[in-house]
């Protein structure tokens, strides 16, 4: 089952590699991982999307907590949360396709952020399933390039993760 | 090397890190006088009350070695290989409970140390390893003797640091010692570039305390969980107490003994936990696991309430987890590391906390509530256990006088030294199991071996480290002719630093444990397990300036050991030619359940 784990950790060199090393050393999956400093520059916030049985997820959170630089760990999927991913897709846009691509981008509330005679670059945000749906909706052959940030997540309402 | 009373007593040993570190000599320097990084390192080690450091010099640590030359309180021991530096410091830590400290140079110095670091990590031993690094401006340039020390050691340390600024040294070292000894202990590497150890910076004294928002290990167990555990324990019909290395690390032996005695329940220790409960007590069922006793393993399989303390349900301990799960039982697990709980078996009552704190709380709660175990049920459980014990699974065929049985050597050594408070180290293999089975440890921290990683070659360096810490105690290294050759160069260190140890080598001319598995699982195809072209160990010992003995007959075993013990000031290498066909029994073969034991070669 899919889990989104939010991690607050010291913004120090090497902290990221400890997390990544933990996942590879113990054979856990990483579907996506994002990390950036928070409003407090001494802290980074990481969102890890992973899959595994309840036992595996329990071990993952325990092992994350065991890392010296990790301050807090929350499995967002245990409660209500919001997930967003930024995706940029460069698509072929020639002739009739230009109108079609524009319409698809509008339907998915995407924005065209770069245009050439032959292509559009479309920016989309949403949860991963929405971005997946967009890629499924357009013709596979029209996709020239895709880049996705991976999910970042935040708890809903009063669920707050901070030091 | 003498340390004055005033100096040692001024340092309060902190186990949690929350208690204040002592006023040390470094306080004199709080005016902010300028010191080199290497000098700050020395101040830090002094403030941490480090008495010994094992190391090997090289380019990147020359400034540090220069600073060592100018001080007198810390004795440096020059080993012959960096692996042994870490093992020796590790052995010291295991025997004393203090943080073991090793010092190695960059590149190959560090990579040689990795086996030692991983060994300490697997057994949760508190250590600080200082490694030199190339100067900061050369990091990443593929400089001479450069390696990514932090990257290489990351998976085998509790934590590691690269110190890029000499001004951070004091605080980083404070953190390193704090992390190494608190919570679940473990090795911490501090990598110091050459320019950092050379640079002069203002020094404001060694920090007395350290606060880390990201690291606050729990100590106290949850009272509600402890109560729940006790209710289970009191209702138990077939209770069993299973304890591991965590009891020793937490120095909770007295509490464990009190608890077991109060309850009258049977108790077993893991390989790492031997000595936590006295082997001579009837309530002790022996070691459990792959080569555990018949009674210890059967009790594990058949108990209805299992109290696991500072143990981690290792694959060598519970055998096939599916088979283990066939019998229903309630499991209570006390451990300071939450990730050890419900890792391999599902636990009913987890208690996260320091073993000592939790046991103290348990004992108090039993007294308060005048909890009483179910005496009738316990009586019949003991009867069953005594039947298992009656099988006498450790009996062995003594053979003729012409052949020395390895078990007999260990038994004889135990018989001679049981009242001598001796320290026994071992390497890894058959001899290790025989030592664990036939030497009956009554006290904690007397049995020193590599349980988790199973590192051949630790025996001599461990003994060396312990002998330095306990110069008045006898230290024996039970080893084999395979393992002993993995760090045999340290015989040289033993001579230089006058650490007379007694090496009991059970020489069966085979990599015995490999041969045993090949006999049992590979139809006797002894692929590369025969040690051809063995050295003459007697001459080898003599070449290193020690005493060598060759013992070939059973009747000579005891006189040889007696003679060796008389040579108090000499390192003695005893080459016992033992039966090459002997196997370790009982044995749980691969994939079998813990109670599915082979008791002798007749079961094959």
Explained architecture:
The complex is a heterodimer of chains A (163) and B (604). Chain A is an alpha+beta fold and 163 residues long. Chain A folds into 2 domains: 2-78, ACT domain (Alpha-Beta Plaits, 2-Layer Sandwich); 82-152, ACT-like. Chain A, domain 2 (Alpha-Beta Plaits, 2-Layer Sandwich). Chain A has helices at residues 15-25, 54-66, 96-107, 128-137; strands at 2-10, 32-37, 43-51, 70-75, 81-92, 111-115, 119-126, 143-148, 152-155. In chain A, the strands form 2 sheets. In chain A, strands 5, 6, 7, 8 and 9 form a 5-stranded antiparallel sheet that branches. Chain A has a 4-stranded antiparallel sheet with strand order 2-3-1-4, covered by helices on one side. The radius of gyration of chain A is 18 Å and the shape is elongated. The relative contact order of chain A is 0.21. By secondary structure, chain B is an alpha/beta fold. Mean pLDDT of chain B is 94; it is low at 1-27. In chain B, helix 11 (253-263) runs parallel beside helix 15 (355-368) and helix 17 (406-417) packs across helix 23. The longest helix of chain B has 16 residues, at 375-390. Chain B has 23 helices and 20 strands. In chain B, strand 4 (100-104), helix 5 and strand 5 form a beta-alpha-beta unit. Chain B starts with a helix and ends in a 27-residue tail after the last strand. In chain B, strands 3-2-4-5-7-6 form a 6-stranded parallel sheet, sandwiched between helices. Chain B has a 6-stranded parallel sheet with strand order 11-10-9-12-13-14, with helices on both faces. At the A-B interface, helix 1 and helix 2 of A face loops of B.
Q: Structural class per helix/strand content of chain B?
A: alpha/beta
Query: What's the story with the biggest beta sheet of chain B?
Result: 6 strands, parallel
Radius of gyration of chain A from CA coordinates: 18 Å
End-to-end CA span of chain A? 28 Å
The percentage helix of chain B is 25-40%
Greatest chain-chain contact:
A-B, 20 and 17 residues
SSE string of chain A, helices as H and strands as E = EHEEHEEHEEHEE
State the CATH superfamily name of the largest domain in chain B. Answer: Thiamin diphosphate (ThDP)-binding fold, Pyr/PP domains
Tell me the number of structural domains of chain A: 2
Query: Which structural class fits the helix and strand makeup of chain A?
Result: alpha+beta
Bulk shape of chain A: elongated
User: How do the strands of the widest beta sheet of chain B line up side by side?
Assistant: 3-2-4-5-7-6
Q: What gyration radius of chain B follows from the Cα positions, in whole Å?
A: 25 Å
Shape of chain B: globular
Cα-to-Cα separation, first versus last residue of chain B? 56 Å
